[in-house]
Amino acid sequence: MIFGGLTSAGDLLARNARNFPNDIGLIFGEKRLTWKELDERANAFANSLFYLGLERGDRVAIYAKNSNKWVEALFGLAQVGLVSVTVNYRLTANEVAYIVENSGAKAIICDESTELNSLQVKEQAKCLQQVINSEFFEILINSQKESAIQTPQSAINDDESAMLLYTSGTTGFPKGAIYSHYSLLVGMLVHVHAIASRQTHRVMLPSPLYSAAGIAGIYCAVYVGSQISLINYDVETACQTIERDKITFTNLVPTTIQMLLASEISKKYDLSSLEVLLYGGSPIPEPVLREAMERFPKCGFRQTFATTETGCAGTVLEPSEHRSALEIPEKKHLLQSCGRPQTNVDVRIVDENWNFLPPNEVGEIAVRTEANMVGYWNNAEATAKTLCNGWLRTGDMARMDEDGYFYLVDRKNDMIVSGALNVYPSEVERILQEHPAVFEVAVIGVPSEKWGEEVKAIVVLKEGGESTEKDIISFCEGKLAGFKKPKTVEFIDKLPRNLTGKILKKDLRERFS
């Protein structure tokens, strides 16, 4: 099927190269690449992989910080029918090896920060044939310069897999959400409409590209042809970029908005060009929104709610609704809402049996859209639990009011969001349970001024067992990424449980928060 003249997700980049060949498409650090240059580099890199023995449909992991190479790899792979596997650059070698083996990736793209881990992964994962570091990446592009403007010999089918976006599950093991070229294109068209993205925007993308937010950001900006300034986020880099590139559009989370407002560094820069501030992850506290609107008087604030599995399609709270919530007392409750369904997206609250619930009853958010993932890679059981007749369970508990606004109330799987990064307690618990002195453990999220939430371990020691907070945290070294490791540890005699034996994490959160 041809979708608006596109047959693959990679065609977005090629289309911009045709329509805006000499316009600046991507700025990263000192690099300024036109759409034509970006497309040629992407196509040259991807074509070179066939000379390394890869075949159409093979998976290629991208395990690196944000850079122009990340973007070139993402769109180049899509252009030639290879499948991107996005990997969090904070993960340890063992964690990455699981994803590589699960996806069957034959090559891994890394940078200086992940090269050593990638070499260790190659020793562990039998399927992995090539480690492509930054230097080798450039060599591959230069080796294919003559073929840089070539296209695949046969068109990409829209039902072919384009990407595996990995997300942790309730078992603690990551699951690969499969996106076809069609679901990606539909999802980005829906999201472009929801966030009012335009070709005239100058966009700063601070989210890591391995994440759903990062993928949505880069695809939407490329979809409409916005000028993109890509960064690895810290407050000063963000402020420098906004001032230098006259940024009009960016996406953050409430935590990073609060950090930016509180930073003395931000006051040194002219941030007045900002017109749109998109955020997600959680509702924004009223004091933060008021301060942000005073700091950025021209800026419209827009919130979206979606999940990794819904292709960034979900709900949206518009700028006008933010203003109403601040100015009209009867509308103040909207600040706690994640909005109403995006165009061409159906959102409902369901019970355990997929029955739709009436307004104000708490249940699980379910989403129906063609942007939903196709399923989980090599995991039919998890797919069957999550998808049903076009609907997808998000795992988020919420209610809907009489006006159709949705309000998140809890996370079904007790997921912790720390500094916009998702941490699944079961994954941390699985590691801590290996400690020789630990009898049982429960991991919860507790409030953090800096990160929104931080990881806390509640430990019951074996009879006669001895340990300390420092010892428990150190035990996680090399086994878990830094953001997943407990920040604090409490030792108690017994975990609270219900009559069926399930640990009552709600009670633990109330006690230790």
Task: Write a concise keyword list for the protein shown above.
seven-stranded mixed beta sheet, globular, Rossmann fold, nine-stranded mixed beta sheet, 513 residues, 25% strand, GMP Synthetase, Chain A, domain 3, single chain
CATH topology name of one domain, in short, is Rossmann fold
- Uncertain runs are none
Question: What is the CA-based Rg, rounded?
Answer: 23 Å
Q: Give the C-level CATH assignment of one domain.
A: Alpha Beta
Count of DSSP helices? Answer: 16
CATH architecture label name of one domain = 3-Layer(aba) Sandwich
The fraction of residues assigned to DSSP E strands is 25-35%
**Assembly level:** single chain
What is the number of E strands?
A: 26
**Structural class of the secondary elements?**
alpha/beta
Helical content class = 25-40%
Strand order of the largest sheet: 2-1-10-9-11-12-13-14-15
> What is the distance, rounded to the nearest whole angstrom, between the alpha carbons of the first and last residues?
52 Å
For the largest beta-sheet, the strand count, sense and barrel status come to:
9 strands, mixed
Q: By CATH's scheme, which homologous superfamily of one domain applies?
A: ANL, N-terminal domain
Outline, from the CA principal axes? globular
Mean pLDDT: 90
